[in-house]
Structure formats: C-alpha cells, structure tokens
Amino acid sequence: MTPSRRRPSPARRRLLDAAATRFYAHGIAATGIDAIVADASVAKMSLYNNFSSKADLVHAYLTERHAEWLALYARRRADADSPTARVLAVFDAYRDHAELAYDHGFRGCGLLNAAAELPADDPGREAVRRHKEEVEQIMHDELAHLVVDDEAARLAEHLSFLLEGAMARAGLEGGPDRLTHARTLAETLLSALPQDAP
After folding, report:
1. Alpha helix positions (H), the chain
2. Beta carbons within 8 Å of 130's beta carbon, 6+ residues apart
3. pLDDT digit string (tens) for 142-178?
4. Which of these, 11, 10, 7, 38, lies nearest to 22 by C-alpha position?
5. What are the pLDDT digits (tens) for 53-84?
6. What HEC string does 122-156 produce?
C-alpha cells in the first residue's frame, strides 16, 4: 500500500487542504513543502508519513479537485430532469466551482493550472486529461439520448471547447461571468435539438 492510499488521518486532511490552497493560489512549483507543513500545523514527518513525495501530494491534490467537481456536478444533476438539463448541469457545476471562496481569488481551472506546470510526461497531466475527457463523456452520454452517436460526439466536443474556453477566460478575469455566458450559448445550441431520444 502506497502512502497516498492509507486511511485518511487528520494530518493528511490538513496537509491536503493546505496544499490545495497553496497550489491553487501560488502554483505547484512556487509552493514548498515547508510552507505546506507550516500551513497545516503538522510536523514535517507527518507529510512523509502520509505522502511519499511532493509528486504524491500533487497527485492527491489533482484527485481531490476531480472528486470535488464530480460532487458539484452530482448535486446539479440531481435536479436535472432531461438530457438537456443534465448537459447544462455540467456548465452549472463549472460555474459553482468558480464561485467557491478562494483565499486569493478565482484563477481558473485548478487542474489545468497544475497541468501547465507539470512536465509533458508527468502522470498528473494524464490525470487532468482523464478528467477533461470524463466531462466531455458526461455530455456525450446525455446528448446521445437526443441525437445519433456521431452527432453526440461532435456536439460534446463542441460544448467541451466552449466550456474550457469560458473557464480559461473566467480565470483570467477572476469571476464566473464567462461561464454564465457559455451556459447561455450552450442552452441556445441545445434548444435546437430534438428533445426526444433518436
């Protein structure tokens, strides 16, 4: 069992919370282990008892960011009563993520920010790619209830580009307005589709 797979401890939780705050606000490369340990108010040995390395901590951070978004989407999806509404719930969950209280302001997608700092062959980049593919697949699966599969794939990719572009601009602007606009554009596009299964 690797250290990152151990049963969660209070020290692990504090370390992950401190790392998440620092990584998002300042970046991975600019965040040292000593700063994380100090923010978490734990002994340095606690870090190495819970994570084998900084890379292991980064991987846990990326995993948690993904799980955090999935939970936001699950809450939005619970109120969605149609394939169209479930696609729009993806946009709503991204906006919800943008509206979370960040200590140093909203800086865009934490996963993409992290991936931009990691070397091309880093497993963290693969984790981010899988997250983005999963988001696109969620949209595809809902669109497949409305249009044939090839069209669902094309539309899911289109909506994914719209969503990610809006997230990038929202991050640069420090607020969710672009995500709100992207949702409106997506809703307009989706309203032209048949609302029954093909």
Report:
1. 10-26, 33-40, 44-50, 54-78, 83-98, 110-117, 123-143, 149-173, 177-191
2. none
3. 999 999 999 999 999 999 999 999 999 999 999 999 9
4. 38
5. 999 999 999 999 999 999 999 999 999 999 99
6. CHHHHHHHHHHHHHHHHHHHHHCCCCCHHHHHHHH
